Amino acid sequence: MRRNARWGGTFLTPVLVVGSLLIFALLLIMGLVAFKKYEKRTSEEDGVAGRAMVEVEGGAKIVATEGSEPVRVADQGWLTEFKLTSSRKEPVTNTNLLGKPYVISFFFSTCPSVCVKQNEKMKSLYDKFADQGIRFVSVSVDPEIDTPERLTEYAERFNADTEKWLFLTGDMDYISRVGAEVFRIFVTRRGHPEQFIVVDADGKIFGYYNWTDASQFLTLQQDLTALASDPQLRANETPRGREKKTETPAEDEAAEANE
Fold first, then answer.
1. Smallest Cα–Cα separation from 176: which of 167, 188, 191?
2. In degrees rounded to 5, what are phi and psi of residue 204?
3. Cα dihedral 110/112/115/120 (nearest 10)
């Protein structure tokens, strides 16, 4: 009986070792599969707000990050105008948009979640303000995919009148420059902030609004209501959302006390 027990133990030991190795290998394979899925999802959802982008043109850095604002580092001047192509295959410039306020944002059509939610928010604004003289502009940051034909299909998804809600595309390097130099935000291929930018009838930036923030989205609607009701209303020298924080008297007293 002892001999049989020893034999059983000798037999079971390698079986347990092999079984443990097989379980370890299976867990490793499952981990690799999960990592690949995460990596793919991350690449698809590139462009969540808050990323500081560095713009490149011809392999050379032309815009760097300093705080929340782009800073020019190349010798050439900043863009003050832009020319892109609409889903209707028509050229659109900022000069074409003068005369009426508009809301502009950046997106890409294959984004499975963030951009969909963003454009659902844009659609709610479009439904409320498009007939009050406010126009809407969405610029693709994946122009190789987002051809005019693709943007036409995307616009139909939101039942958008593409004369009131424009979907624009163009060259990616140029779109990055438009974002950084004209609208003072960082955008790159599949990378964009979660912001709506309001531009007044003279083409000046009225304000920046994070659409994921309920209070900012409410302020955005209040500002659009004001712009729609007062054709003479124009942007301040400093756009809303880019004001420098000023210390209150209480903060001043606290600072003095700490000294």
1. 188
2. -95, 145
3. 120
As a three-state string, the secondary structure of 89-147 is: CCEEECCCCCCCCEEEEEECCCCCCHHHHHHHHHHHHHHHHHHHCCEEEEEECCCCCCC
* H or E element at residue 208: strand 205-210
Query: 52 with 65: CB under 8 angstroms?
Result: yes
**Closest alpha carbon to 63 in 173, 223, 222:** 173
pTM attached to this predicted model: 0.70
Tracing tokens 């990616």 back to the chain, one arrives at: 172
pLDDT in tens, 193-239: 999 999 999 999 999 999 999 999 999 999 999 999 999 999 999 99
Q: How many CA atoms lie within 13 A of 29 on its CB side?
A: 6
Tens-place pLDDT, residues 13-52: 766 667 777 787 777 777 666 655 544 444 333 333 333 3
